Amino acid sequence: MTDSTEKGTAEKVKRRQGKADHAASTLEAQQARAAKIGEDHDEASDALEREKAALKAARKEAKQLGKKVEKREKLVESLRKERSAAEKQLSRHRDEAEKQLAKLAKVQAEVTAEDATSALEGGEAKAAVRTVKATSSRSAAAKTAAKKTTARKAPAKRAPAKKTSARKTASAGGTS
Question: pTM of the full predicted structure?
Answer without folding.
Answer: 0.45
